[in-house]
Structures are given as structure tokens and as C-alpha cells.
Amino acid sequence: MMQALRGQVVRLALRGALTGKSAVHDVFGWFDGDGLFLASGPPAGRTREVLALIESGVLDLLGPELTIERDEASGRFVASSPISGRRESASVLVETRMSKGRVGSTSDPLLQSLLGRGAARLHAFSGVQGDGLDTSPADVDEASPSGHNLVAADGTADPSIVVLGIPASTTQPGSAIGATPGKPSPLLAGADVAAKQVLLRQH
């Protein structure tokens, strides 16, 4: 019930039914966070599925205290763990750790870097600055050619960066809500579109 209510309230805010001040201070100030607290979290079955993927070798964990750097010479991302001593490189980085939802005051180094160098900007409601990343609109269905691309400080969208979930939930209604059996999921639909964009850049 709370999941359905959250989605509708956020859509009203994005369509201008509320003042910018109310959208920022009420909807995203306390209502959305309270809704996440009451109606979020993975079901036990999903946790068992992830463990099964790890045990079968489909998913691999590098180790704790993970750091990721970009190798400018090769253009690849290099991840390493000082605890396990493992090191891997890849051409695509998918950052899945959740920020606290308040991008403007986050300590996350990736988000801070994007904002600091003008590669990202905070979304604004009727001139009132919110606390979530601004992303381009997208029809999140399987036929969509592009997803939610990060909008830079100058207003341009970067097709190489796709943002989903809590940091951009102000521009993506329902994307921070877990999937509900038997109902369409904006979170999973957006992830499908993002996956297609990543795969296209690999070829």
C-alpha cells in the first residue's frame, strides 16, 4: 500500500501539482524517506537467489574495503581490495551502493566528484533546488532506446552515464521502490533499459 502511495505522490510532485517548496521539503524531505523505511527491503527469496549466483560462480565478490580507480592509459576501471589482495579491471563501471538519498550533502566520493566537476546537477522543482540528481526523462520499457542519462551543470545529458534508484528518485517516480509481484516495476524496467545501453557501448 505504501509503495503504491509513494509512487503516486512523487508523480504529483513532478507534474507540478505541489509547490516547489512542498515537493522538496515535504515529499522528498520526510514523506519519501518514511515510505522507504516502512515499505522497502529485499524479500528473503531474493537474498537466497543472490547467494545461489555467488555459489554458482555467476557473481564474484572481490573483497571488503573495495576501491575503484580509472586507468587513464587503458580507459578501464580497476577495482581492488586490500584485504583479499584481489584486483580486476573492466571497461564498464556499475555503481550499486546506495547513497543516503541526499545527494547535495552526501559523502560518497563518486557523487561528490560528479557534482564538483559539473558533470551532474541537482534537480529543481519550480526554482527550488532539491537533493536528488537530475536525469533525462525516459520511457522505461523494453522498447526504449535510452534510459535515464545524467544531466550536467550546463543542461546537457551524458549518454555514457545512466543513473537509477535513490539518488535520482526525484526524476524517476517509483525507481527507488522494490519490485512487487504481479505489478509493473519502474525500478526493473529502468534497469533493463540501462543494461541495454551498457551492452550497446560494449560493441
* Overall pLDDT score: 79
Identify the strand order in the major beta sheet. 1-2-3
Number of domains: 2
Give the overall form.
Answer: globular
Question: What is the β-strand count?
Answer: 7
Q: What structural category characterises the helix and strand content?
A: alpha+beta
Looking at how many chains there are and whether they match, the oligomeric state comes to: single chain
Q: CA-to-CA gap between the ends? A: 42 Å
- Helical fraction: 25-40%
3D structure, described in words:
There is one protein chain. The protein is of the alpha+beta class and 203 residues long. It has two domains: 2-60 and 94-202, no CATH class; 61-93, no CATH class. 34% of the residues lie in helices and 16% in strands. It has helices at 2-14, 20-39, 44-55, 109-116, 186-202; strands spanning 67-71, 76-80, 87-90, 122-125, 128-133, 149-151, 157-162. It has a three-stranded antiparallel sheet, with no helix packed on it. A hairpin with a 6-residue loop joins strand 2 (76-80) and strand 3. Helix 1 packs antiparallel against helix 2 (20-39). The model has no long low-confidence stretch (mean pLDDT 79).
List keywords for this structure.
3-stranded antiparallel beta sheet, 2 domains, 5 helices, two-stranded antiparallel sheet, 203 residues, 16% strand, alpha+beta
Write the layout of secondary structure elements.
Blueprint: H1 2-14, H2 20-39, H3 44-55, E1 67-71, E2 76-80, E3 87-90, H4 109-116, E4 122-125, E5 128-133, E6 149-151, E7 157-162, H5 186-202
